[in-house]
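Glutamate racemase: structure, please.
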Amino acid sequence: MSSRADAPIGVFDSGVGGLTVARAILDQLPGEQLRYVGDTAHGPYGPLPIAEARRHTLAVTDQLVADGVKLLVIACNTASAACLRDARERYDVPVVEVIVPAVRRAVATTRNGRIGVIGTLGTIRSRAYEDAFAAAPDVRVTSVACPRFAEFVERGNTSGRQVLGLAQSYLEPLQRADVDTLVLGCTHYPLLTGVLQIVMGDGVTLVSSAEETAKDVFRVLTELDLLRGSLAEPAHEFLATGPAEPFTRLARRFLGPELGAVLGSPARAFSLDEPQPAPPDVATGSRYGPSLSGSVNGSTPAAAATPHER
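Here you go.
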């Protein structure tokens, strides 16, 4: 086994949403090590201009690659839309994203050929999903921006009357379009599954990119002979560029109670625009911001919008 195979997989998101992807990777590849960075100091990225989302994304992904990750997962739809091509040209490690995997699953799932996509303003305006669906000309795609969903998830508010009312408003165009498959075009949205299913009804299949993205990670690592073969317990790092405590609280909802075994570093935020050296008592990687670093026992932590039609 090469030393590169023992390197961690880097996972990046604008906040906590990418933890759904991290969870799926650890379920499918329990022996792998993860280094996760959530840019909570600047996210959610949805309302940001594409150029700003790109700048923040590359600031973090540059550091992940410099730190030696063997594969990079951009687990944020807005970031993928903003700079996927740049990232693949920029780095000498494979880059996996979340848009095409979700499209692939949706096309395989739909029965009536009518697919809905919900996402941030940035993702929907980019038309990245429409571009990805172009390879399936027989499907009709209706896209709706849901600009407030991600901020609700970041605050831990994923149920209740306010979120339900918001969902009813956002999803009404998709109900009128008679979609039978709904792509959750933001990795924050799986935490809203209960509300989304109530509004759309049991006849609509919700598609998250997490599991399909994890399959792509497995495929790429296998093709490049980079699967970790060590029997040593994997060590994972979960880091945030903003305050650590709210990130920790929400991370437990994604990854399970085992996250309690992960040690936290001092909550000190560093600017991504002007990196500062890490103090000696902070784990490697804390240059991104406050970190939650450590290994977990066992191998895996439990871990009004205008619609667009194509």
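Notes: Residues 99-209 form a domain with the Rossmann fold fold (CATH 3.40.50.1860).
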